[in-house]
Each structure stands twice: as C-alpha cells, then as structure tokens.
Amino acid sequence: MKTQKLAKDCGDCSYDVNNRNSTPASAITITPQLIPATLKFNPNESLYLQPMSHRANLDFDFLVRKQMNNDIPTLVETDWLAANLSSGEIRIIDATWYLPTVDRNGIENYNDGHIPGAVFWDIDAISDPNTQLPHMMPDEAIFEGHMRELGIGSEHHIIVYDNVKMMTAPRVWWTLRAFGHDKVSILNGGQKKWVAENRSLTKTSSCTHATNFIARLDTLMIRSIDEVRENLINNQEQLLDARTSRRFNGIDPEPRPGCRSGHIPKSLNLPFNQLIDEESGLFKSAEDLKSIFDAAGIDEASTIVTTCGSGITACVLALGLYLTGRYDVAVYDGSWTEWGGHEDTPVAS
Fold first, then answer.
1. Is 345 within a domain?
2. What's the pTM?
3. How many Å apart are CA 324 and CA 327, to the nearest integer?
4. Do 212 and 226 share a domain, yes or no?
5. Could you report the per-residue pLDDT of 1-19, keeping only the tens digit for each?
6. What 3 state SS string does 270-288 have?
7. Pair (163, 227) in one structural domain
C-alpha cells in the first residue's frame, strides 16, 4: 500500500515517556486512507505537506493519537470498573468540584465516601499558581508534580468520575489529554450511578506510590483570550458556550464578582446539561448528540472552540463533540471569567 510521510510532530509516536527532553519523530508513515479530509495533497507530488491549518493540525493530532490508543474507551460503565477495581494498570480519580455559589466542596464529598481506590483531584489546586483566574492550566513541570503526588504514571489507564452529574469529570479528561495522556476514560453516570447500583464507597484515602509522569502540553487544544479576539475578525472558528441560556443572554448575573453579564459576540449557546440524560445521568448516544449539536448550529466545516464560565463545563461540550467523532475542538481556558472580567472586550447579550 502506498504511503505518505507527513512533516508533523506526532506526539507520542517515538517519544520516550521517561524523558521529556527526548526528540519526537519529525515525520511518521501513514496511509492516505487515514488522512483526514481536511488534508488535501497530491500523492504524486512532494512527500512533505505544506504547513497545515489549525483545524488540520487538530484533526491530524487526534487521528494519530486515537489510532495509538484505540483500545481505550472514552466512556466506561460501572460494571467494567467494578470488575477492574483491583487492576494495577488503572488509577481512579474523583474529580468532583462545585461552583463557588454552592456551600460544599469536592474534598468534603470525597471524605464522605468515594469509589475504592480513588484519589481526589483538586481542580482548583492543580492549576496555574501565577494567575488570578480560576483553575487555569499549569505548566508541564507543575502538572507533572501533581500527577506524581497522586500516584499517577504515564503508563496508567486513568478512570475519572464525579458526583455532580458529569459536570466536572470531563475537565480532568480534557486536561490529561491536553498534557499528552490519552489513556483516560470517564465513568459514565459517575458516583451517582455507582451508588444507585448499591456498589460500595469507602472513606479510606488511597495510598499512592512513586510514579513517573511526563507531560507534553498540546497547545492546539487550548485557546487564549488573544486568539479569541483574533477570531472575531477572521471568523475561522465557531465558539460554543456551555452556560445556561439566561447567563448567556445576560439575564442572570455571573457567580463571580466583577464579571459582566452576556456572551462573546458571534458565539452559539448550548447548555452542557443537554448532553446528559436527566433521568439516567448518562451521556446521550452519539446519534442524539450529533442532532443536538446540529440544532445548535454547529458547522462541520469549522473548528469548534468551547467556552463556559471558567473552563469546566466547556469540557463537557468538548467531550460530547469528541463522542460524535469531532476531534477538531479546543477549549477557551479563561472562558467568561476572563473575557467578562476585562473592560475592553466586546460583549453581546
């Protein structure tokens, strides 16, 4: 079968996970049948492609990464986790987090009872310490330190869950993947489904062991405020806001002081909870999700950038899009807390 070399750093293809300073492959061999439709080339011409667009880069990165981790499901069910609790190959994360307006916090939920073997991921603590914005992505070295403290190594298959109706586990799923760790799944239905099936919880904190986690941040998965500003001019990407319609339209106030009401001009609105079945607490089927995104006005020809209040539920939308086969998705990490907190950013309502 004829193959084509792509001049593109392909993440983990020949990367030594025990050495962040090792040199990744500058090209990989891949069959034309695996190339996304967005990458147009003549196989009879030069072996090396011209620089790719943002979307083509995202498509390419995720296509390669998905091929390498094809046996890792995006969602796992409670039966699967119950059967694999004692496996040394997995690590379980409780990613429960609450909005600042709620009189409760994630560590209280964890201490009240968690799935056996789970460690607690503090979304606010595993973040950039050099910004006033909440739970922004840290740098690679800081992230590696947190993972090692949690006993998470690059070799582990990570299972993430929450106790807030699938609101926060996707943020951890996205964060791990943004740092190059694709061996991560979400427990469909979370702790609520686990408890509803009379499965046991424990109040005993899990012991952690020395591990080696190597992080490689994929900046293609993240958008900055400057990139979102630029997009208002060039209109190359679609913004999709996960907040409630009342917050999106500026009717309800924002939960954080000093943050204006409204939304980023030209953005679309799709409240994140529409992707989750209210009765079962499970993610809706890929077919149903696609219909929901189509109804929201998602353009299949555009890269999607998801946003929300502070980068948490934007990841629910990113996960939903991923489940439909859309890999060209990025998250505006600062989201409305950053945009609405600036005096010079345009606001629509």
1. no
2. 0.83
3. 9
4. no
5. 333 333 333 333 433 434 4
6. CCHHHHECCCCCCECCHHH
7. no
